[in-house]
Write a structure and sequence with these properties.
about 250 residues, alpha/beta, 11 helices, 5 strands, single chain, Rossmann fold, globular, about 45% helix
Length: about 250
């Protein structure tokens, strides 16, 4: 059995996230999605609250279960997606359920797991590699042994940053095309879209563009529900000049 793990904050879940998830679904027998619901109320003009995150999570979870029934496990982890991911790796390493990773309930037999792949971008994957693989703490304890055992050394645990790996972007594009996305000039933009750009679109009330970056497993009613929820985060006291500057700044990052 091949197991894929994809974790993140998803504020909100976009086509870019779907591109990584669809790749994981194509390459694995079972995929675990750890979906964080933390707020993001600082650093931008858009206020994304925990309540909004929870509401959108329920919509996305229902749609994903409808689309990928039997192949995907969707969890709202505590305390964070990162901790839950480490716990799941540990459960497979140790061959038994952990408090945050009841793998037996998820239909995952650790003895049958031949490969675990963690999907993400360079920043998110660093949390699982920096100061872990091949390094020791001050006490001399081997962190890699503690968290991963021999999973990395034997090639059973790998970290897939498709955005920078050779051929990775093409793999993601092909997985999206297989999910029904158009093979056009916007495809790469959709894969690379950032959460800050999506939230800037919402703050600017550019809902047509915003909807274009929502994943296609959402139906029209669900997309509208997401838009209605996102409208709660618009800061009314933002000046028009600052709003336009913020929007242009985020869009031009492409």
């Amino acid at each position: 059995m091949k197991v894929g793990i994809f974790q993140g904050g998803f504020k909100p879940f976009t086509v870019g996230h779907h591109s990584k998830l669809s790749l994981a679904l194509q390459e694995n027998d079972k995929v675990v999605l750890f979906y964080g619901i933390a707020a993001r109320t600082k650093g931008s003009d858009f206020k994304y609250t925990k309540e909004m995150a929870t509401q959108i999570y329920e919509i996305v979870k229902s749609a994903l279960q409808r689309e990928y029934a039997g192949k995907i496990i969707i969890e709202k982890p505590f305390p964070t997606p990162i901790v839950a991911t480490f716990s799941l790796i540990g459960a497979i390493k140790d061959g038994r359920d952990k408090e945050r990773s009841p793998i037996s309930q998820w239909g995952i037999n650790p003895e049958q797991v031949e490969k675990i792949t963690i999907y993400g971008d360079p920043e998110s994957l660093q949390q699982f590699t920096t100061n872990v693989i091949g390094k020791k703490m001050r006490t001399g304890e081997d962190k890699e042994e503690r968290y991963y055992g021999d999973l990395v050394k034997t090639g059973r645990l790998v970290f897939d940053d498709a955005l920078t790996d050779d051929g990775g972007l093409e793999r993601m594009a092909q997985s999206m095309i297989a999910c029904g996305y158009k093979n056009d000039e916007e495809l790469e933009d959709k894969i690379n879209v950032r959460g800050s750009q999506i939230r800037a679109m919402a703050q600017a009330c550019d809902w047509r563009t915003f909807q274009n970056f929502l994943p296609n497993f959402l139906n029209s009613k669900e997309m509208q529900q997401v838009i209605d929820i996102m409208q709660q985060g618009i800061q009314k006291n933002t000046t028009s000049e600052n709003l336009i500057r913020s929007y242009i700044y985020e869009v031009t990052k492409w």
